[in-house]
Amino acid sequence: MLTKVKEYRSIGISFHPKWWRNTVIGFIIGFSFWLMKYILVYLFGGFEMTVGKSFPEMIMSLLMVMLTFLVGSFLNDIIIRGYVFGHLKERIPVKWVFIISLILYALDDSWNEGFSITNTLFSLILGLSLTYAVYKTGSLWADTGIHWGLNVCYGIFNGTLGSSDGGIIISTYEPQSMFLEMISYIVPLFMFVFVYLIRNKFVRDNG
Predict the structure, then answer these.
(1) Of 92, 102, 91, 93, whose CA–CA distance to 134 is shortest?
(2) Domain CAAX prenyl protease 2/Lysostaphin resistance protein A-like: where (predicted)?
(3) Helix (H, G, I), strand (E, B), or coil: what is residue 77?
């Protein structure tokens, strides 16, 4: 049993006294910045909001989005950052662990979304916040909170990955200009700066 606990802790799954605080702060950050991104895109004509779903449909869709993206975000964080930091941080300089984790995250996104320079750049910028959260706290909770929060916001507008009925807010997207594309890079970059600035608000697991 003790061996299992050590194995989980080594990959960032450690239920220290304030693990929930890191998760909540992370969720608020991820959701808020992604909501900001959608608001900016909407204000500059990137999409239109059409008729929404009925209230029962909205509740069911929200629950599905919350649960689906919680599981998906957590599993991705374990594989891409938990195992990488857990198995490499004592063997190579941490900056290389950081870089390897970023590259793996971008490759994983390319596998799911298809490879493109723009998508790879977006993944690398977004990965900065997620990877830094693990590096700073020594656990996955802040990382998973951020990841889950932004994915929930994504799901509200787009639904879960692979769904055909759209999000809770049904959106019709317009052709994206270069300016609107830049918003997708600028917002996650500002999110990383924000995460760095409030880094001491997170509780670090020193176990």
Answers:
(1) 102
(2) 61-152
(3) helix
Give all strands (DSSP E) within the chain, no chain letters: 47-49, 171-173
**So where are the chain's domains?**
19-45+60-201
Sorted by sequence, the CB contacts under 8 Å of residue 163 that are 6+ apart come out as: none
Tokens standing for 54?
């009925």
From CA 203, how far away is CA 207, in angstroms rounded?
12
Structure-token match 């999110």, residue found = 191
Count how many Cα atoms sit within 13 Å of the Cα of residue 31 in the half-sphere of its side chain. 17
Task: For residue 19, count CB atoms less than 10 angstroms from its CB and return exposed for 0-12, middle for 13-18, buried for 19 or more.
Answer: buried
The residue to which tokens 């055909």 are assigned: 164
Angle value at C-alpha 65, between 106 and 34, nearest 5 degrees = 55
Q: Nearest 5°: phi and psi at 53?
A: -85, 170
**pLDDT per residue as tens digits for the range 7-57:** 778 888 888 788 999 999 999 999 999 999 999 999 988 888 776 677 888
Which tokens hold the place of 21?
A: 């605080």
